């Protein structure tokens, strides 16, 4: 009996038994941890799916908000180059400008309102934002911008902040862009390598269409 007890004690102390014991404990721990982790991993996966869905919804909402804001500006243009005076009639200035510089026959009856935009800056004249009563008049003015070559004046669509940023990036940072422009508040870029035209909605469009050599 004593000999058997001694053999059992020796077996329990042996390296082989200790290794088997460690393996058994580790396996038991793995099973226990897995039972705890599995539902947590499922919850995390579900949350990640919800986050992805919410991000997609947010992008759609942001795009819709930008489109709605741009649509509200569809009758507007911005004109730069007018000397700013302390007391001035912007509508009269714009009408005279359209008639004389652009050769577009307009009167103050064609303009809903016109005013300087932004905070006053010393030694720098602010642009005038003009809202026409008719979209047709706005288009007529934009079409005559060619008359302003070699002058200090510029006429541009009144873009949202986001669309202004997209157009600026298209003109300044696109390494594979032949030209960039806006039409009815939408931004377009012609790719230099094949002259294909792309509508730009977000910064990722530049990279996806091979227009940039870096990511945003």
TrEMBL record:
Pfam families: Baculo_FP_2nd (PF25298). Gene3D superfamilies: L1 transposable element, RRM domain. Residues 160-206 form the FP protein C-terminal domain. InterPro entries: FP_C (IPR057251), Transposase_22 (IPR004244). This is FP protein C-terminal domain-containing protein. It comes from Paramuricea clavata.
């Amino acid at each position: 009996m004593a000999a058997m007890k001694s053999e059992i004690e020796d077996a329990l102390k042996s390296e082989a038994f200790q290794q088997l014991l460690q393996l058994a404990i580790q396996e038991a721990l793995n099973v226990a941890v897995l039972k705890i982790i599995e539902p947590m991993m499922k919850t995390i996966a579900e949350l990640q799916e919800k986050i992805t869905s919410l991000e997609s919804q947010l992008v759609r909402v942001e795009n819709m908000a930008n489109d709605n804001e741009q649509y509200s500006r569809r009758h507007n243009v911005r004109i730069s180059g007018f000397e700013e005076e302390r007391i001035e009639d912007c509508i009269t200035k714009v009408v005279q400008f359209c008639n004389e510089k652009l050769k577009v026959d307009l009167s103050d009856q064609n303009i809903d309102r016109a005013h300087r935009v932004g905070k006053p800056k010393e030694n720098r004249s602010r642009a005038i934002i003009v809202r026409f009563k008719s979209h047709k008049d706005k288009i007529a003015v934009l079409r005559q911008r060619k008359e302003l070559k070699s002058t200090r004046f510029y006429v541009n669509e009144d873009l949202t902040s986001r669309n202004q940023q997209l157009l600026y990036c298209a003109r300044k940072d696109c390494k594979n862009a032949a030209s960039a422009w806006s039409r009815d508040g939408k931004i377009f870029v012609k790719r230099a390598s094949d002259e294909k035209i792309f509508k730009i909605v977000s910064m990722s469009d530049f990279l996806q269409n091979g227009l940039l050599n870096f990511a945003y």
